[in-house]
Amino acid sequence: MNRENSIESRIEAIREQIKEYGDVNIRKFELGQTAVKAAIMYCDGLTDREQIDFHVLKALMSYSFDQRPISKELIQNTLLSTSEIIEVETQEEMLSKVLTGFTALMVDGINEITLIHALAGKSRSIEEPISEALVRGPRAGFNENISDNIALLRKQGENKDLCLLKLQVGERAKKDLYIAYMKGIANPALVEEVHRRVAKIRIDNALESGYIEQLIEDNYLSPFPQIQNTERPDRVTAALMEGKVAILLDGTPFALIAPVTFSMLLQSPEDYYERWLAGTLLRIMRFFAAIMALFVPATYISFISFHPGLIPTKLVISIIATRVGVPFSSLLEALIMEIAIEILREAGLRLPKPIGPAMGIVGGLIIGEAAVQAGIVSPILVIVVALTSICSFSIPQYSAGISLRMLRFPAMFCAAAFGMYGVVLYALLLGAHISRLQSFGVPYASPAAPYRLGEWKDFLMRAPLRMMKRRPKLLYPQDSTRKR
């Protein structure tokens, strides 16, 4: 046998190549009762050793090759009892796969390298989504294992139309990414556009789906999220049934849904699990809370600074009495309290779970009370800030809540500069921006702009399920009729 193609020379070349990879191991052995040498290469922590010991080493070392000659077909088709086998020819391809958890098998006299899928099965268990808790609804949420996430989608119901396109993202660290859609429902042009944008991504490593979201959105300068992220398999399945497309990335529990409109960010799966009257009430309250979270501080500043005549006389006298001795303008005191509350909220998220919520609530009460006692802010402002914070907590999507919290501050400056006139102009500016914004070709303000009366059944209100027989026309689905 040619020394250059022998197993020993190949192992020497591989050892030179992996000398900086301390977690990659090579195990040499002999096939059965023969003198034919073989070796496996695997990565610690990524490979299931018990599976390799039983299905690979034991099978190859105990088999008698007396009656059948050693061949690639015999090893792959008869001896290796594993579900997935890949064949490569170069050491570069082999090393790339070994570093993702595959086990490489090399046999003296066989040029091809067999890659065995025997990944370690350790992953976080299926738990309830923390960021999207519901009173009524499924308790299962995605985890960091892409196989588990795909299985959760499949378990939503027997459906042969659920299609998954597999891609890889990352130039230096490759990760699996799946584009999910419903064949026969999703518009092929939408699927192709999502595929095109994802395929164009050039990045060293996509650590989280947020990287993908930022690289494929329509307008990266907009403060509004143009792609929905979720940990809930039921939300993803419902979106796919409407004709949307989902993106799942290995290593993150957050899936992406596209396209999206602003109204979808204020909707919750629970709207559909409850009866339509309760769902409508909750949704209207959520829209009202979003407006309050955005404009209440600005309205307070404009009324105090420019339009005290619009406040009832008894109330304005009470407010003036509480502001006596406050050394700051209404804008400055509002900024002090709003920034303090935002810092407390962020601190509560980063602290350990047992003390995080208590820190946020107690810290807010203590700071508010201390600020009033010290004469830094007025009591009415504490009520305004507390109301604003409570309203912002009602936003079901965390990313949408961040956008409203961020946009609250420019509204306050507009109110301090021009009063209610500035607040109205700011609201018109936001409305114009939302009207022009798109998500994968879908108007962000739809069905309000452009106006689609037929789709208001699932906008501000949630109509009875028996009346919602059509899928959203803005998605141009292949099958526009729901099965009810």
UniProtKB/TrEMBL annotation:
<keyword id="KW-1133">Transmembrane helix</keyword>
<protein>
    <submittedName>
        <fullName>Spore germination protein</fullName>
    </submittedName>
</protein>
<keyword id="KW-0472">Membrane</keyword>
<feature type="transmembrane region" description="Helical">
    <location>
        <begin position="245"/>
        <end position="266"/>
    </location>
</feature>
<feature type="transmembrane region" description="Helical">
    <location>
        <begin position="287"/>
        <end position="309"/>
    </location>
</feature>
<keyword id="KW-0812">Transmembrane</keyword>
<feature type="transmembrane region" description="Helical">
    <location>
        <begin position="407"/>
        <end position="429"/>
    </location>
</feature>
<dbReference type="InterPro" id="IPR004995">
    <property type="entry name" value="Spore_Ger"/>
</dbReference>
<dbReference type="InterPro" id="IPR050768">
    <property type="entry name" value="UPF0353/GerABKA_families"/>
</dbReference>
<dbReference type="GO" id="GO:0009847">
    <property type="term" value="P:spore germination"/>
</dbReference>
<dbReference type="Pfam" id="PF03323">
    <property type="entry name" value="GerA"/>
</dbReference>
<dbReference type="GO" id="GO:0016020">
    <property type="term" value="C:membrane"/>
</dbReference>
<comment type="similarity">
    <text>Belongs to the GerABKA family.</text>
</comment>
<feature type="transmembrane region" description="Helical">
    <location>
        <begin position="362"/>
        <end position="395"/>
    </location>
</feature>
